[in-house]
What we know:
With 173 residues, the chain is α/β, with parallel strands linked by helices. It has a single domain, classed as 3-Layer(aba) Sandwich (Rossmann fold), CATH 3.40.50. Helix content is 45%, strand content 13%. The chain is built from seven helices and five strands. A five-stranded parallel sheet has the order 2-1-3-4-5, sandwiched between helices. The longest helix is centred in the last third of the chain and has 19 residues. It is globular. The chain starts with a helix and ends in a 19-residue tail after the last helix.
Amino acid sequence: MKAIEEAVRSDAPATRVVVVEDDQASADVLQRRLQANGMVVSVAHDGKRGIELVEELLPDLVLLDVMLPDTDGYDVCLRIKSNTATSPIPVIFLSARGEVVDKVRGLSCGAADYMSASSHGWRSPTRRFASTSSSSSFRDSISRMRMTRQTWSSSRGTRRSPRICPRTSPSSV
């Protein structure tokens, strides 16, 4: 607990998170929980706005739903990963879809992780993620992601992910 309090009080920049979630209640739960842990959270309720926020803010992390009203999360992830400015940003899918094919597709698009309700029992993925966001291991993970992002940004264009999303190109979002 002391480590978390010290991390929040430190001069380290706040972790910036973009949440792309069309369900208002889920987005609110995530936003409140992450903000309570000192993170700066921006929310988009569709894929187009999500991509705009990611390109504008260059956050430390993107939490992305698969099912969105204007496109699917796979296309959004592919767009994020195909842009050299945003490709180092880790994307985590939070979805009710839990089939192996969904997880493989999400990871193939370049996501760092795919959390589903079925893989974590009865809890929704949003609540599961929000409940782990206050742990010191979560903050350590964010710090490692931030350092990796800085390293990738300094060598931009020299390292590309070998994974290929099943869709060959992003749809027009």
